[in-house]
Amino acid sequence: MSDERLTFKEMCAKFDVTPRTLRYYEYIELLSPDREGRSRFYSPRETARMTLILRGRRFGFSLEEIRQWLLLYEEKGSKAQFEEFLRLADRQLDVLAEERARLDQTIDDLNALRAETQGLVDKA
Questions:
Q1: How does 75-107 read in b/e, with b if 16+ C-beta sit within 10 Å?
Q2: Which pTM was predicted?
Q3: Which domain holds residue 43?
């Protein structure tokens, strides 16, 4: 990892997030940039954390779950963090499987209704 620090604006651009989002992540203690006066600078550690935050959000984890998960590394180390990730991942995989089943059923229902409607159009 590079020792290069990113400015607030560079961080927003790199991760395609709004300034409001970045400030909120700081407020809820997901990120802790270095401060020099009113300027914020993000170390490689903070950019790695941001990558994990956005990945967690994409997978459907809450910000509080992500915050607690990141905190585990600092308090108990990698093994505890890995074990917690496995627990969270298993739970989220179940949730996503249920969502997929509901979506598959909805797609099937919509296809059936479309086919029925096409049949009515063809007869008319």
A1: eeeeeebeebeeebeeeeeeeeeeeeeeeeeee
A2: 0.81
A3: 6-87
